[in-house]
Design a protein that fits this description.
mainly beta, 14% helix
Length: 547
């Protein structure tokens, strides 16, 4: 149904697809510790294997199958899902264009070579020596990781093995991805400068596999990307490298009194090999491959990096007259080229107009200022009588500055009138200022937790109540990039965007747009999968049992 160009579903309509996922892991590890004088030696081995399966049945696929059942009197629902009906199988393959990993189109597990589950593995070795004397503590170690992401490898990247006839890939053109080995040294030490001051330093290299949902794609989805008929902002990756991080920490701990201590730590973190969207450097965009694949297709590749520098201040007290306090403040500066793997998709698609980004800029997930104050008031087991014994009250105040965003303009693109002119598609955005120059508002929140432990029949039962956002503060966590605030999306207030639609539809359209989108953020939540405002007050009650 449509009211003033706003679409509403009929009762009983299918609103969403159906999905299921399976994630399994198996871990084996063995560790040993040997104490020899001031040296504590540790060594270990760890093996991890994973199984990744993903299934999705689209709304259109569900609709088309139901339509076939309705129109064919000989076709029943049970026979449609049996897997033996050729017409249903063909329709599922046609409608479910993203395909599946580790499942067939009916949702049954399969273990075939390229259609089966992905099974990444890691093997790790480490050795560490902790040397400790009265005035010095030194930790020296090294960790070696072998990563196999199981994201396959193209034998000839300049000629991807695209199987157009069978909506898949030419399996002989792919092989298993290589195992990558990373050596990660670690060093840390601490020593007293005075009887109240301790200096500490840490250095380490770390490596981890990228987010598995990024590189993995079904053969059918690979077919879709290589077909070149569609813009695919979330493609697939081949033989990706792990992500590497180098981290430094340097700090001082100072004890003001026997009950109060403060620590100041400066840190630097550099991460390389992050995932971003790129193009196949080995392909010749002017010459189609032997298999007819779109050699100019986008892929996930290693190439992005980020640097985070900052300082952290913490203050701690011992419990004095039932009260213990903790406070922290962190200032950080996070910079890089892309805030997420997909952010430069628009530049790549329109690179004739703009080259892919190469400048370092503030990252959108950065909160430059972040802090917390926590007060914990607690009665002992024999303190305060029956009512107050083992009662604890924790009050926490948290605050942070906003995150960077970029004031932007641009047209509506391929959007319906009821969705307005949000700039979700990178191809439609035109920055009106340097990237990341603006910042969303500051946030603050008060949380309260009350708990009480009681003993019943040898069991320790803790009853608790937790109130998140006690004062029900309405925090702005995101803004519209056109207006820079959370209360005006910049559509109705810009006649160049909306005047023709409003003139054609009248006041009903404008009223519905304000109520559905501006007041309730329906279009923003649908586009971005998140809200403009933080979580309102949440009250939780519960109990835990220890025995």
């Amino acid at each position: 149904y449509y009211v003033g160009l706003f679409a509403f579903n009929r009762p009983g309509d299918i609103r969403t697809g159906w999905s299921k996922n399976s994630r399994k892991s198996t871990t084996f590890d063995i560790k040993a510790t040997l104490q020899r004088g001031p040296h504590e030696l540790k060594a270990g081995f760890e093996f991890k294997s994973y199984e990744y399966r993903s299934y999705y049945l689209s709304t259109s696929a569900i609709y088309n199958i139901n339509r076939m059942i309705d129109q064919d009197s000989t076709l029943t629902r049970s026979s449609a899902v049996s897997g033996s009906n050729t017409a249903i199988t063909e329709q599922l393959a046609l409608s479910n264009r993203s395909g599946n990993i580790g499942y067939d189109d009916y949702g049954d597990e399969i273990d075939t070579d390229r259609g089966g589950p992905r099974t990444p593995k890691t093997t790790s070795f480490f050795v560490n020596d902790k040397y400790e004397t009265d005035d010095l503590v030194v930790n020296v170690g090294v960790r070696v990781d072998n990563f196999n992401l199981d994201d396959w490898k193209m034998k000839n990247p300049a000629n991807p093995g695209w199987d157009e006839t069978n909506q898949g890939i030419v399996e002989s053109e792919f092989e298993d991805s290589e195992t990558k080995t990373y050596i990660q040294p670690r060093l840390g030490f601490a020593f007293p400068v005075s009887d109240k001051t301790v200096f500490h330093f840490q250095y380490g290299k770390y490596a981890q596999m990228p987010e598995l949902s990024r590189p993995y794609a079904s053969p059918r989805y690979m077919h879709l990307v290589w077909g070149g008929q569609n813009y695919t902002p979330s493609p697939m990756g081949f033989d990706l490298d792990p992500i590497e991080t180098t981290q430094y920490e340097l700090g001082l701990s100072y004890e003001f009194t026997d009950n109060v201590a403060v620590d100041i730590t400066a840190f630097a973190k550099n991460t390389i090999g992050q995932i971003e969207i790129g193009k196949n450097d080995e392909a010749d965009a002017n010459t189609a491959g032997y298999y007819g694949a779109d050699v100019d297709a986008l892929y996930y590749v290693n190439g992005d990096f980020s640097t985070i520098n900052g300082v952290e201040l913490t203050l701690k007290t011992r419990r004095i007259n039932r009260l213990q306090a903790f406070a922290s403040y962190t200032w950080s500066d996070a910079r890089g080229v892309n805030s997420d793997p997909n952010i430069n998709a628009g530049n790549l698609v329109q690179e004739a107009l703009a080259a892919p980004p190469a400048m370092i800029m503030p990252l959108y997930y950065e909160n430059k200022h972040r802090g917390a104050v926590s007060l914990d008031y607690r009665f002992g087991s024999k303190d305060g009588g029956l009512l107050f014994s083992n009662l604890g009250i924790n009050l926490q105040y948290k605050f942070n500055s906003g995150h960077p965003f970029t004031l932007s303009g641009g047209g509506m693109g391929q959007r319906s009138a009821d969705r307005g002119a949000l700039l979700q598609d990178a191809r439609s955005r035109e920055p009106l200022e340097p990237i990341g120059q603006s910042t969303t508002p500051w946030n603050n929140m008060v949380n309260l937790k009350v708990d009480k432990a009681v003993n019943m029949g040898g069991l320790k039962i803790t009853l608790f109540a937790y109130v998140e956002n006690l004062l029900d503060t309405k925090n702005v966590i995101n803004v519209y990039s056109r207006s820079g605030n959370a209360y005006d999306d910049g559509f109705l207030t810009d006649p160049a965007l909306s005047s023709e639609i409003v003139a054609a539809q009248g006041d009903l359209y404008a009223d519905l747009y304000r109520n559905v989108n501006v007041e309730n953020r329906q279009h923003y939540i649908s586009d971005f999968g998140r809200d403009l405002f933080g979580t309102p007050r949440v009250v939780k009650f519960g109990a835990s049992v220890n025995f």
